[in-house]
Amino acid sequence: ASSGLFYLFMLKVPDKKVVIADQMGLFADYELDAIEKAAEDLSSKHNLNVAIVTTNYKGDDYTNNEYGYQKYVDDFYRENFRSNPLQDNSGFVLFVDLTHNREGSRYFYIYTYGTAFYSLSNSAAKGIVEDHMRALTKEDYVSAFCGIIDDLDARNYSSVGLILTWVMLLLVPLVVAVIF
Fold this sequence. Notes:
This protein has 180 residues and is an alpha/beta fold. The chain has helices spanning 2-11, 29-46, 66-80, 116-119, 122-131, 133-137, 141-153, 160-179, and strands spanning 18-22, 49-55, 91-97, 107-113.
């Protein structure tokens, strides 16, 4: 009986949500509403967590390089989204670090988690950011984020890797439940 409950637990897909952490105060309320609506549409349509994070201070534990950005975003994702490794916690984080707020020194990136990686490789993430770099560098963040979210919405969410992951999410818990 306990193995059956364990199997059911592992099959449960956590509710997905949207988190906007505008630590820089870049957006007016009406702008946040537009971005949040676009992010919620993406989240519900593709069953993904979506976060938008703007910061100019990550804390002393994080360096101002790719490793420090990744560590900060990973910690943010873990704290804000349920991260049981046995359940689907897929999603995106759109990240802006303005620690060095001058053109050429700002950091923009899209991080992927779980099955979202199969829909957006690192090179595709870089391409999407580059497509919106003009708006980002001109500090037209609403246009940039809404455009990025539209581009993410247009991605293929039924790739072979994604299908294999879902099959594994179904089979591994069953095998574990039967064995134990």
